[in-house]
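ok here's DUF1763-domain-containing protein, seq below lol
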Amino acid sequence: MTNQIILAYRNLYRHGLHAVQFSKPARYTLRDRLRLAFRKGNPRDFDQRKIDNTIEFLRGATRETGLEHRIVKNLLFVWYHQADTVSVPHSPLKWNMDAGEMKARAASYDAFNHNVQMLNESIGMCLPTTNVQPQF
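and the structure came out like this:
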């Protein structure tokens, strides 16, 4: 089972890199999201069918700049900015925000994360939906 999980991570990462065409901010965001999902996820929830569907989706995003490519591009764009919002530096004074405003910014992505979960359920995929929690 462990070898299958490692192989699934490698396949998702490889096909994801091809889908984003190795562009610099997107590949690091993809790597961080996949790492978080595989580290925090439960190995008992492993489903090879969902992995295969996600890999096929990423292959479609690689082949042409159609709907799949735009979905992947926009997901990574939002995840990039979501990580900037919630991974606040040690001093909240840097952005002149108090703890309440930082919590509100982190909560503003709840609807987006819910939509990604619904996309996963409707198509049978496993795009990472693990939330990055703010550090207060």
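fwiw Residues 2-123 form one domain. kinda neat tbh
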